[in-house]
Amino acid sequence: MLRTPQASSGNRRRQKTRRQLLDAAGAVIAERGIDNATVGEIAERADVAFGSFYNHFASKEEIVEVLLAEIVDRHAEASVAIDAVLVASTDRLARGVMALVHQALTDPLWGLLLVRLGTGRLELAAPLLGLVDRDVRAGQAVGELSADTDAGLLVVMISGAVYGAIYSVVSAQPGGPPALPASLAAEIRAAEVARSVLRLAGVTPSSARTAVARVQKRFPLSERLPPSTDPTRRGASS
User: Which of 1, 13, 46, 82 has the fewest CB atoms within 10 Å distance of its CB?
Assistant: First the structure.
């Protein structure tokens, strides 16, 4: 059955309103947290009537689940292409961490939303933690990551470190290395976090630097870093 022009127009309006509500929910939750955000605030931020919210979402919990699903889907889609190229689990773990941190630092509101969703309710973070869990268990199985720490505990520790690093930067909004474009500064910080995560997982300092450098070369998050600012060229203290 063919749709009438009126039906198509109505569907576009519905999709636009739904997107407005999702964007507004993301902003409100990033600012106030999941528990403090209300449907009324979300509707007001979206410039949508309060009752219209329920034409699109059954509850605040449902819109939160959709927001997190969007984050997970974006990350998972990128992982599929990367996994076909990166063989070492250390490289996959480093790339996943770097992608999240870089995105969060170049889009601070998104970064705060990620932290709020990831730490506000553990059950909501489960899909995102699953991607980390996969790489950790694979790395431990082949000896690339230390098996001294239980995989489940290590996943929680890594996630906490990543969320903490993101929050400490986006909430304070400090500048990156001087005279660098935001994307380059974000890549430097993302590389630092990735190296720290690999160290947390039992990787030696030199191997962590090598893995991150390898990932940056294959999948740069920004324009290539000039030699004087490329963190992979620094000494062992990096």
Answer: 1
